[in-house]
Amino acid sequence: MRLSSWKRIVGLGLLVVVIALAMACGTDEDGEESPYRIGVMESLTGAGETYGQVANNAKTMAMDEINAAGGIVGRKLELVVEDSKCNAQDAINAYNKLTDVDGMKIILGTSCSGAMLGVAPHAEEDGVVLFSGLASNPDIANAGDYIFRTQISDIEVGINTGNVLWANGIRSLATITEETDYAEGVRRTSVSQFEKNGGEVIAQERYAPDTTDFRSQLTKLFGANPDALHIAPQSEFSAGTIVKQAKELGYDGPIYGETITVGTTALDIAGDAATGLRAITATPDPNNAKAQEVLANFRARYNYITLPWHLGSAYDDVYIAAECLKQTKDDQDADGFRDCLYDITWSGALGNNYSFDEYGEVVGLSRAVVEVLPPEERTIENYGYKVLSGDELE
Q1: Distance of CA 149 to the CA centre of its chain
Q2: I need a surface site. Which of 36, 87, 101, 321 has the fewest CB within 10 A?
Q3: What's the CA dihedral at 365, 192, 118, 115 to 10 degrees?
Q4: Alpha helices in the chain (DSSP H)
Q5: Are strands 278-281 and 368-372 parallel, antiparallel or unpaired?
């Protein structure tokens, strides 16, 4: 072998060593500090597409703001995104890609409860932080020491829904529920509180996520002559279609739902049929200057808004992650990041001075009762509904 060939080989070997040392020291091959890298899992497709996309866009906006302001003590933030598709198996595939291939120890996500519950045992076993802004099934509270969320548990949704139904004079109820962990969690907790108050569920139907026509099931429900209909969907598409078809069948009684039923896409599909629908949902405080700033910036950047609470939750998660990375100075230190979350108190788009309890559950945030406005009164600023008094929640 020629001497020049040996020199090239030795040179390449030295370059590999330099790059490895640079990465270990937090710098790249150009001598600049390498970015902090954390994973993101959102439902970019599937039943949760509308809110998965809004969450991913909010996280991207937050990342860009942080980097434009100088990064995290001089180091940029990089989000590595995978599509969890709103189901457990695809979420596990996304998780394996982020952890096994990309080496992530901190993951923001997932969008959907079923996906979160599918991935959580793996994250707990591997010591990987899983930090969701959207998943709300009550069982997530017991998923492990590395599992956190800024989304409010469906236990509160159910208690509030049951109390609102009773306060509004509803005594008999029909329910239609999508067959997913999220939707079933909403139905189960809502029915439990309603029955505890003295109400009775006189008819119930469930539907598969790929269902597009609900008239047969709705006809059965209305045949029982309930005082009200309760909807627990996973997707905005099914939510809007159920409301629309209920009215087309001649149902003129009250309809109750949750966050997904008052998403922009759901209301666009339902049209006038959604007028008067009541939902128990988390909604940004109009008096919270930070929330209004974030929503205005998002609207200016992407020219749309749906499910503003989900948007704000995803946005806050990135800033909370940046604060914890500032403390740990290591995107591979999952234990340090976890301990930071347990200790942190945060004020942002979701509200002021909220924190996490010993189960990783967010505390210091609450939901409200909203009522959908007529189409001519729905604006991008009011999200299509008005906030009612919270007295019914007690």
Answers
A1: 9
A2: 101
A3: -60
A4: 3-24, 49-68, 88-96, 113-126, 154-167, 181-197, 215-223, 236-248, 264-270, 289-302, 308-328, 334-343
A5: antiparallel
Q: With contact defined as beta carbons under 8 Å apart, do 218 and 203 qualify?
A: no
End-to-end Cα separation, the chain, in angstroms: 84
Question: How many residues does this entry show for the chain?
Answer: 394
| pLDDT, tens digit, 9 for 90 and up, residues 169-211 | 999 999 999 999 999 999 999 999 999 999 999 999 999 999 9
Q: Which residues contact 51 (CB under 8 A, 6 or more apart)?
A: 43, 111, 134, 236, 260, 263, 306, 307, 310
Tell whether the torsion through CA atoms of 262, 266, 267 and 270 is positive or negative. negative
Task: Round to whole Å and give the CA distance between 224 and 120.
Answer: 40
- Distance CA(166)–CA(150), nearest Å, equals 28
Residue 43 CA to residue 317 CA, distance in Å, equals: 16
| pLDDT 10s digits, 258-302 | 999 999 999 999 999 999 999 999 888 888 999 999 999 999 999
For 329, residues 6+ apart whose C-beta sits below 8 A from its C-beta are 73
**Taking a C-beta distance cutoff of 8 angstroms, is the pair 265, 236 a contact?**
yes
Query: What HEC string does 277-335 produce?
Result: CEEEECCCCCCCHHHHHHHHHHHHHHCCCCCHHHHHHHHHHHHHHHHHHHHHCCCCCHH
Rounded to 5 degrees, what are φ and ψ at 240?
A: -65, -40
Looking at residue 373, the DSSP 8-state letter turns out to be P
What is the amino acid identity at position 306?
T
**Distance between CA 146 and CA 168 in Å, rounded?**
40
